[in-house]
């Protein structure tokens, strides 16, 4: 191992580091959500059929699930700093490809930036665990709030900016690459400083496939993601089919995203101070039950149900991301659990919009799809309650390149063998 880098050591955990993490986090949703405001226009211009239109919406979420497992290996090989720089470069490149006003440009750009964001989603919780061990609540809250705020920002300003500038749909989508360039500029000092420990050769890696707590956190994360992506895809349509104006329906989706920001920021700060987070999982589920119960049985005060839905979604995301760092003992464990929870969780969530659309077509109404989401809250409550109880994951350790693993908990392994990435 080379000598530690004192410059990198001074940057880790600093105020500038926190600001840089926030800016990187803000880049992990706008390029994806920006498609929604211009979706009708690009669908007509590119003559996309229903299958391709659905694939465009589902592709980023599938990237999160399929490509996410690459993140821990990439971090082990080149470190968090360079890996996150590659994430921002992928977003910039993906937005650049979207400038090409063709189906190829749109889909290839979406695939590239989706791959980058998949890595970023997983690495940031591990980075927070490594550099902000004594500020986990604040930084986890900022991270989850950044995801909600980035989505809200893209949904709210993409179309107005495009209209004001006279841009076509491809230019409106490519605009968010400028935001990623700014993020890369803020992150460059960490890349240039390098890893605080210098380069290291890792001889082992950890696995969580047989750990109960890891699967509980994964299940909770997947169920809350299923709810979010299903409602994001279909909420305006549900409201329009219920007799509401399309403009009003769009405003309600914006309201849900806006309301989700404060709980996404605040809830992790409280969770970090508690020995058990099980009570919060129950409370979130109760709010969810109220929101979907109202939409099913008494839909008239729609604004109330949207506010409750936003609160529940923001809090659910905050709990899901915070459990990843609270149920692990070091950044390597946090990165692996983040990869497991988000990869499986997003794969599960990707099926939600497609399944709900199929149920709507089969039944002719939204009652059955909404009932399915309502019933899915039960396992979310159970996994959140059990995963929120005090404890840590107990991974097995596998020697890199040998294909064998030792049935040893991380607590029994020397610290040098589980050195932070």
Number of domain modules: 1
Query: Can you give the mean pLDDT?
Result: 84
| CATH homologous superfamily heading | MFS general substrate transporter like domains
User: Shape, please?
Assistant: globular
- Contiguous helical run count: 16
Using the coordinates shown, work out and report the CATH topology.
Growth Hormone, Chain: A
Enumerate the spans where pLDDT stays under 50 for 5 or more consecutive residues: 4-9, 197-204, 402-421
Percent of residues in helices comes to over 70%
Keywords:
421 residues, mainly alpha, Growth Hormone, Chain: A, three-stranded antiparallel β-sheet, 16 helices, 3 strands, disordered C terminus
Description of the molecule:
This protein has 421 residues and is an all-alpha fold. The protein has one domain (6-418): Up-down Bundle (Growth Hormone, Chain: A). Helices cover 74% and strands 2% of the residues. The protein has helices at residues 6-11, 15-26, 30-33, 39-45, 50-67, 70-97, 103-131, 136-165, 169-174, 176-193, 212-241, 246-271, 278-297, 302-326, 331-363, 367-387, and strands at residues 204-207, 396-399, 405-406. A three-stranded antiparallel β-sheet has the order 1-2-3. Strand 2 and strand 3 (405-406) form a beta hairpin. The protein is globular and about 50 Å long. Residues 4-9, 197-204 and 402-421 have low confidence and may be disordered.
Short summary of the structure?
With 421 residues, the protein is mainly alpha-helical. Helix content is 74%, strand content 2%.
């Amino acid at each position: 191992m080379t000598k530690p880098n004192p410059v990198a050591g001074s940057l880790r955990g600093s105020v500038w580091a926190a600001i840089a993490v926030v800016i990187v986090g803000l880049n992990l949703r706008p390029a994806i959500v920006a498609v929604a405001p211009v979706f009708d226009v690009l669908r007509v211009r590119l003559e996309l059929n229903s299958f391709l239109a659905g694939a465009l919406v589902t592709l980023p979420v599938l990237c999160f699930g399929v490509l996410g497992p690459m993140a821990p290996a990439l971090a082990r090989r080149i470190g968090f700093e360079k890996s996150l720089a590659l994430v921002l470069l992928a977003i910039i490149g993906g937005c650049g490809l979207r400038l090409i006003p063709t189906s190829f440009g749109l889909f290839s750009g979406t695939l590239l930036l989706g791959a980058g964001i998949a890595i970023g989603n997983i690495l940031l919780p591990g980075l927070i665990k490594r550099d902000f061990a004594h500020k986990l609540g604040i930084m986890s809250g900022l991270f989850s709030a950044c995801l909600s705020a980035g989505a809200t920002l893209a949904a709210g300003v993409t179309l107005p900016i495009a209209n004001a500038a006279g841009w076509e749909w491809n230019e409106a989508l490519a605009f968010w690459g400028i935001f990623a360039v700014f993020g890369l500029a803020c992150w460059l000092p960490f890349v240039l400083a390098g890893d605080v420990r210098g380069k290291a050769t890792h001889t082992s890696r950890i696995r969580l496939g047989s750990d109960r707590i890891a699967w509980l956190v994964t299940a909770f994360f997947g169920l809350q993601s299923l709810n979010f992506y299903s409602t994001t895809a279909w909420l305006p349509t549900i409201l329009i089919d219920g007799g509401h104006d399309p403009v009003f329906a769009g405003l309600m989706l914006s309201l849900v995203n806006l309301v989700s920001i404060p709980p996404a920021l605040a809830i992790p700060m409280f969770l970090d101070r508690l020995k058990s987070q099980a009570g919060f999982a129950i409370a979130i589920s109760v709010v969810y039950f109220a929101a979907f119960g109202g939409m099913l049985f008494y839909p008239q005060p729609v604004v109330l149900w949207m506010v409750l839905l936003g609160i529940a979604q923001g809090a659910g995301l905050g709990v899901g991301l915070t459990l990843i760092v609270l149920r692990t003992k070091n950044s390597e464990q946090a990165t692996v659990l983040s990869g497991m929870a988000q990869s499986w969780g997003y794969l599960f969530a990707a099926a939600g919009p497609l399944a709900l659309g199929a149920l709507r077509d089969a039944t002719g109404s939204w009652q059955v799809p909404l009932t399915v989401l309502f019933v899915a809250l039960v396992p979310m409550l159970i996994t959140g309650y059990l995963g929120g109880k005090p404890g840590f994951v107990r991974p097995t350790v596998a020697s890199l390149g040998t294909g064998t693993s030792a049935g040893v908990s991380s607590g029994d392994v020397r610290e040098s063998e589980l050195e932070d990435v």
